[in-house]
Write a structure and sequence with these properties.
single chain; alpha/beta; Rossmann fold; four-stranded parallel sheet; about 5% strand
């Protein structure tokens, strides 16, 4: 039987169902969601390998990947989880921070690591990949301050040359910036796509690339879930993410149990244990 393996960052695994959940439900495939909030493309590459080591991909298995921003610094922490703070630029606020970052960061290193990760996975698993695309514009760093980090004009030229080289040689994949820039559920202070937006991502971003059509039943149940979450959050006046954290899962357990089996999220230690 086919299995669906999904890889990405918080655009693919979040506190409410994402496109990954919707696709798995729509295709009626068991979901193995290896996406992790804050993960970068090098980490995604490692997660694909972890999943293969653990579950031994077969020709019937399908892989879908939402590649993320190029400015993330991936490593596993001592408690067995990937670092989840996202872009390394998130904490760069002052000239002192910029100076400290220059000592361990290079725009050329970002290009090399990200382009290599995407190219490697694309070649090694090409027979299993059903779809892959970008959730950020490739090469445009999240929270980008890279212009402040270039030492001189020569470095900027090298950056442009190397970017062109890799863009000419890595797979040409669809792009869509998933940072919505609006309130989730028209109420919560968060720019991640909400359930309604994830339906649109499946319908108008992913499925057209693979010539699939989403089932009316899938649209109906996830639209109903979106409306229920939205109504509940407004009723409880939950606008902050820490308030929202467990609300969607509770609603799914109580009112949408048929979706619950598609909320598979795997930690590193889960994957590496027997």
């Amino acid at each position: 039987m086919s299995r669906l393996f999904v890889f990405g960052c918080s655009f693919s695994q979040y506190m409410w169902p994402t496109w990954a959940t919707i696709v798995a439900y729509d295709l009626q495939l068991p979901l193995y969601n290896f996406a992790f909030a804050g993960l970068g493309n090098v980490g995604i590459m490692h997660r694909v390998m972890e999943a293969d080591m653990k579950f031994k991909f077969t020709p019937e298995d399908k892989i879908m990947i939402m590649w993320t921003s190029w400015s993330r610094d991936d490593y596993v922490q001592s408690h067995g989880m990937w670092k989840s703070s996202g872009s390394r630029f998130n904490d760069v606020m002052t000239k002192k921070d910029i100076s400290r970052l220059k000592g361990r960061w290079s725009s050329l290193d970002d290009i090399l690591k990200n382009a290599t990760a995407i190219s490697y996975v694309s070649k090694l698993y090409k027979d299993n990949i059903l779809w892959q695309g970008h959730g950020f514009n490739p090469g445009i760093n999240e929270g980008d301050i890279s212009n402040s980090l270039f030492s001189n004009k020569e470095e900027q030229i090298k950056y442009a040359e190397l970017m062109k080289f890799y863009k000419d040689n890595i797979p040409s994949l669809p792009e869509r910036n998933l940072e919505s820039g609006k309130l989730a559920f028209d109420y919560v202070i968060d720019s991640h796509p909400d359930v309604e937006e994830h339906i649109d991502i499946v319908q108008n971003y992913i499925y057209p690339c693979i010539d699939y059509n989403i089932r009316d039943e899938t649209v109906g149940i996830f639209s109903a879930l979106h409306k229920t979450i939205k109504k509940t959050l407004k009723k409880k006046k939950f606008k902050e993410l820490h308030q929202v954290l467990h609300v969607p899962e509770g609603i799914i357990i109580e009112k949408f149990p048929e979706i619950y089996d598609y909320l598979d999220i795997r930690s590193l230690m889960d994957d590496m244990s027997g």
